[in-house]
Structure formats: C-alpha cells, structure tokens
Write a structure and sequence with these properties.
about 15% strand; 7-stranded parallel sheet; alpha/beta; 2 domains; 3-stranded antiparallel sheet; about 290 residues
C-alpha cells in the first residue's frame, strides 16, 4: 500500500489535515486572529496561558488585579513573540469593573472570541465553624461570581458573532473535598456546574463552554508546599505520576481546548492532574 499523504489546507487556518491509510492527522495549533481575554494573567497559570496563546497568534487582553508592573512585563514578553496585547486592570468580583474590562477589550479588538476565566484565590485555611464570613464570601465572589460576571459580559458579543469559547479554570477540588477550604471547593464545584449549564444553553449559538481542572501545579502560589521536603513528599503521594505539573503543561492543554482542534468538546471538565483524582494514596490498598 502506498505511503502517500493527501493533504489539504483548512480555510481560515494554516493547519494541514493529512490522510494516510485512513488516518486523519492534524498538525499545529493556530489561534491566529483570535481575540482572547484572560483573567488573572499577571502570574502563574494565567501568565503561561497568555504566553502560549500569544505564541499561537492570538490577540491578548491580559487582565490583572493589583500588579501593573508584572502585567506590563508579561505583555512586553508576549509582544516579542509577535503578538498584539493590551493590559486591563479589573477586580473580577466587581460586576461594574468586569463590564468596563470587556468594553475596553471590545473597543480595542472589535469583539471577543475566547474568554479564559482564570482569576481565583484559595483563601485562608479555616474550618467552617471557625470561618470568617467575609473571607468565605470573598472566595466565592472571586472564584464563582467572577466567572459568571465575565461570561455574562462577553456573551453579549459572542451571541451576535454566533461563535466563541469560554474556558473556566476549575480544579481537582471540584470533585475532591479539601478540609479547611470549603469556600474554594464549593466555588469550583459550582463553576463546574455553571460550565455545563452554559454549554447547554449556548450550544445552538455555536459557543463552546468547558472547564480545565489542574491538579498540583508548581507555581509561586503553592511554593510553601513544594519548597518543603516533608510537605512535598506528602503531596507527591497523592499524584499517580509522582510529580507536580508545570504551568506550561496546563497552558498547552488550554491552548488546544480553545482551538478549532477541540471543536466538538463542550460542557466537559478536562482534568490535567497527573491522576490526582484517582486517589493515588490507595495504590497499595485501602
């Protein structure tokens, strides 16, 4: 049988689809011309996602809350990749600020194709009966109300376009309880169901909504855990792959999920966690 490849170029994409012996092979993730708003993008996972999207050709709206210098530094790095980027300050837990952020983004780029709801906090460790109500509410406002506010605003534009992708960053704690962090776990579980409901509502409008749930990723936010040999050992026992994930690994998955290569994925949570949700502590029995 011949090894000849039959390739054709998709419209509005530089991706080639090559057929060999009945197998379709897709190459390259291309976000060229896509307009992507990423919240909480001045550090950690948001920073990595913004850089990956920029490298793939997207126009970036880099949202930050309180570190303008860090945001501008990241924006400069993205520009060196040949991508267009603007920085926008906003507190996602404030619906008025979210509206202003989206309006600023749309005035710049003329619309919005991708929203990544990444901004979030885990809050202070506290058992429920000891918790401070205002602190608990703050976690819910940022992690659940924030994505709702952002989605509601961008959908005013996506609906008219009849296309768009909303990617919600949840966590393994959308299904794994986390003692002392009830607000965080509740918000992430709620965001998972919000994702499914939005996907159900918006499918006929050509808009995809999905969640990406990282596990233990090595970022500055959890340095106190991975920088301590004893707590790191305990953490690694919870991960089947026996290591923490890296921000670029999550950013790679995010880039795929918002691209046309994932055009039939919606309403789902994709876990990128080294199989933490497999409860690796039970590897040798209960």
């Amino acid at each position: 049988m011949s090894d000849t490849f039959f390739c054709k170029r998709k419209k509005v994409s530089d991706t080639f689809f090559c057929k060999k012996k009945g197998v379709i092979r897709a190459m390259d993730i291309n976000l060229k011309g896509k307009r992507a708003l990423i919240t909480g993008a001045s550090s950690g996972l948001g920073e990595s996602i913004a850089k990956k999207f920029g490298a793939a050709g997207a126009k970036i709206g880099l949202n930050f809350h309180s570190h303008p210098d860090a945001a501008e530094k990241i924006a400069s790095e993205i520009k060196t990749l040949g991508a267009d980027v603007i920085t926008i300050q906003a507190d996602v837990s404030d619906s008025g600020q979210v509206k202003n952020m989206v309006d600023t983004f749309v005035r710049k780029w003329g619309g919005v194709d991708i929203l990544v709801n990444n901004a979030g906090i885990d809050g202070k460790h506290s058992l429920i009966y000891e918790s401070d109500i205002s602190e608990w509410e703050k976690v819910i406002k940022i992690n659940l109300f924030g994505p709702f506010y952002c989605a509601r605003e961008v959908l005013q534009h996506m609906i008219n376009q009849k296309k768009g992708v909303i990617l919600n960053m949840t966590s393994v704690h959308e299904i794994i309880p986390w003692s002392g962090y009830s607000g965080y776990a509740a918000a992430k579980a709620g965001l998972s169901m919000l994702t499914k409901t939005m996907a159900q509502e918006l499918g006929s409008s050509g808009i995809r909504v999905l969640s990406l749930a990282p596990g233990a990723i090595q970022t500055d936010i959890n340095k106190s855990v991975w920088d301590n040999p004893s707590t790191l050992k305990d953490l690694l026992n919870k991960i089947s792959l026996g290591r923490m994930g890296q921000p670029d690994e999550i950013a790679d998955v995010a880039t795929f999920l918002v691209s046309d290569l994932a055009s039939y994925i919606t309403g789902s949570t994709i876990f990128a966690d080294g199989a933490m949700i497999d409860y690796s502590n039970f590897t040798h029995g209960g």
